[in-house]
């Protein structure tokens, strides 16, 4: 029997390294703990990790990884569409609610802007996706210690850009993403 709502969210659309991770979540029990759910970016690492275990124990969920190679070869939009289809085919619900403003052409997926702040199932999906991706980036950092993935998780920070300029890109960087050149200072050449 189909459950009521499946919330869907992703982590890792913007980084220049690592996978994009999608999660679909159907909450089994809307107990007191559900009030702690929020957009994963607004929670501390400790709180996200606590909720990660609670959500897994109290939900039906499905997690989809799209590697940097898949993103480079197929493009972001195709990877997002495939992830949505896989979640929809795996978790049976009456409604599928996806955080954002596009369903990427997948029939039956409803979109909600800032859904991770408004819908508990999307908040739960946000937490599963973010914690899963962060754990992956921390684990893989031991293979590529010079890039410090455990710190920036593959996002384009000043330090990460400097490390790419120093060492070049490694196997888990998205080669299709282009680094914008640093903007020169107004005072460059005057000193």
The CATH topology assignment is: Nucleotidyltransferase, domain 5
Main beta sheet, described? 5 strands, mixed
How are the strands of the largest sheet arranged? 3-2-1-4-5
N/C terminus separation = 71 Å
Number of strands: 5
Residues in helices, as a percent range: 25-40%
CATH class: Alpha Beta
Q: Which superfamily, in CATH terms, is the homologous superfamily?
A: Ribonuclease H-like superfamily/Ribonuclease H
- Encode the helix/strand succession as letters: EEHEHHEEHHHH
Shape: globular
Task: List low-pLDDT spans.
Answer: 183-191
Number of domains: 1
Q: Look at the helices and sheets and give the structural class.
A: alpha/beta
Mean pLDDT: 90
Radius of gyration: 18 Å
Per DSSP, what share of the residues sits in E-state strands of 2 or more residues?
15-25%
Q: What's the CATH architecture?
A: 2-Layer Sandwich
Count of runs of 4 or more consecutive helical residues: 7
Model description:
The chain is 39% helix and 19% strand. The protein has 191 residues and is α/β, with parallel strands linked by helices. The chain has one domain: Nucleotidyltransferase, domain 5, CATH 3.30.420. It starts with a strand and ends in a 24-residue tail after the last helix. Mean pLDDT is 90; it is low at 183-191.
Give the SSE map:
Layout lengths: L2 E9 L8 E8 L17 H13 L1 E8 L1 H7 L1 H15 L2 E7 L9 E4 L2 H4 L1 H21 L8 H4 L5 H10 L24
Outline:
The chain has helices spanning 45-57, 68-74, 76-90, 115-118, 120-140, 149-152, 158-167; strands at 3-11, 20-27, 59-66, 93-99, 109-112. It is α/β, with parallel strands linked by helices and 191 residues long.
């Amino acid at each position: 029997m189909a459950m009521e709502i499946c919330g869907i969210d992703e982590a890792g659309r913007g980084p220049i390294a690592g996978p994009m991770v999608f999660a679909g979540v159907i909450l089994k029990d809307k107990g007191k703990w559900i009030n702690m759910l929020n957009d994963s970016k607004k929670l501390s690492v400790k709180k996200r990790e606590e909720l990660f275990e609670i959500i897994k124990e109290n939900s039906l969920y499905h997690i989809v990884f799209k590697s940097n190679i898949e993103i480079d070869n197929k493009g972001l939009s195709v990877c997002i569409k495939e992830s949505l289809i896989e979640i929809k085919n795996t978790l049976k619900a009456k409604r599928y609610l996806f955080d954002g403003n596009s369903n990427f052409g997948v029939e039956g997926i409803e979109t909600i802007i800032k859904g991770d702040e408004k819908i508990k199932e999307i908040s739960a999906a946000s937490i599963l996706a973010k914690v899963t991706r962060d754990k992956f980036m921390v684990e893989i950092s031991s293979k590529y210690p010079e890039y410090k993935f455990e710190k920036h998780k593959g996002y384009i920070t000043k330090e990460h850009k400097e490390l790419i300029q120093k060492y070049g890109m490694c196997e888990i960087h998205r080669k299709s993403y282009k680094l914008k050149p640093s903007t020169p200072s107004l005072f460059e050449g005057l000193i």
